[in-house]
Amino acid sequence: MNGERPRYALVDAVRGAAILMMIVYHFSWDLTFFGLANFNIFTDPWWVWFSYIIVTVILAAMGISQVMSRQRGLTSKVFFRRLSLIAAAAGAVSLATYSMDPGTFVFFGILHHIALASVILAGVMFLPSMTLVSLAVFILAAPAFLTHPAFAADWLLWLGLSPTPPPSVDYVPMMPWLAIPLMGVVAGRWMFRDGPAPILLEWQPVHLLAKLIRLAGRHSLAIYLLHQPILFGGLYLFTVILP
Fold first, then answer.
1. Where exactly are the structural domains of the chain?
2. pLDDT at site 205
3. Residue 209 burial (10 A CB sphere; 0-12, 13-18, 19+)
4. What sign has the CA pseudo-torsion 113, 171, 57, 137?
5. Long-range CB pairs of 112-117, under 8 A, 24+ apart, other chains included
6. What is the pLDDT of residue 198?
């Protein structure tokens, strides 16, 4: 821990594991793009569920972190600084992917979701846990009964209620995915119900691999922004420029 502003190694490690899985997922996509492999990233059930697990872990950790931040005395200044950083990073991802392929660019991916979800969670954070659970169930089920062609308009695609998902390489709409950080908040409340540091959260990494995973979790945003330019750029260099 760190004085008045403790960090919990377990939460960082979980986030780090998700980021490492995301690197595997994106590198597999890169290999397929350059014809070095033939992974059916968007159609093979294994890969689809692999991506679902990654997003679920990241968003659940985000919801838990919201509770932790408020336990540590989150200020408006810190909140808006983090929000601005995430929103700027989301914008950078959109611009970069649009320059590569306007037809499949990331207009509402994981970072866009986290930015908007942070604002929504700030507004509902003080609701009772059962209300948050009910809201999460509604959002999770919404695509099954609220989907309508009217939501296929470009400016409404972020909701996730269009009958046909847009052709984006990273699409994490509010419905049903907002249910995950909401449940993360409930889980965070349960974790801290008896005090600031349950025994589980006192875990500290001992082995080098665990320490590296935790480190990745502490710098997850930087790794997220840098890993694809490095991987994609490296493969482009070795398969297009050097030969």
1. 9-241
2. 87
3. exposed
4. positive
5. 112/158, 112/172, 113/59, 113/172, 113/173, 113/174, 113/177, 113/178, 114/58, 114/59, 114/62, 114/86, 114/90, 115/83, 115/86, 115/87, 115/90, 116/158, 116/174, 117/59, 117/62, 117/174, 117/178, 117/181
6. 65
Residue 150, phi then psi, degrees to nearest 5? -60, -30
Q: What is the pLDDT of residue 105?
A: 93
Residue with tokens 């866009």: 112
> Which pLDDT value is given to residue 2?
41
Residue 5: its pLDDT value, please? 53
Below-50 pLDDT ranges, the chain: 1-4
Taking the C-alpha atoms of residue 184 and residue 135, their distance in angstroms, rounded to an integer, is 13
User: Mapping DSSP to helix (H, G, I), strand (E, B) and coil, where does residue 230 land?
Assistant: helix
- pLDDT at site 197: 58
So what's the pLDDT on residue 3? Answer: 42
Task: Give the SS3 label for residue 15.
Answer: helix
CB half-sphere exposure, 173, CA atoms < 13 A? 24
- Specify burial of residue 73 (Cβ count, 10 A radius: 0-12, 13-18, 19+): exposed
DSSP string covering 98-147: HHH-TTT--SB-HHHHHHHHHHHHHHHTTS-HHHHHHHHHHHHHHHHHS-
Q: Which pLDDT score, from 0 to 100, does residue 180 have?
A: 97
Contact 121, 66 (CB under 8 A): yes
Residue 207 falls in which region: left (phi positive, over 0), alpha (psi -120 to 50) or beta: beta
Where does the chain show beta strands of DSSP type E? none
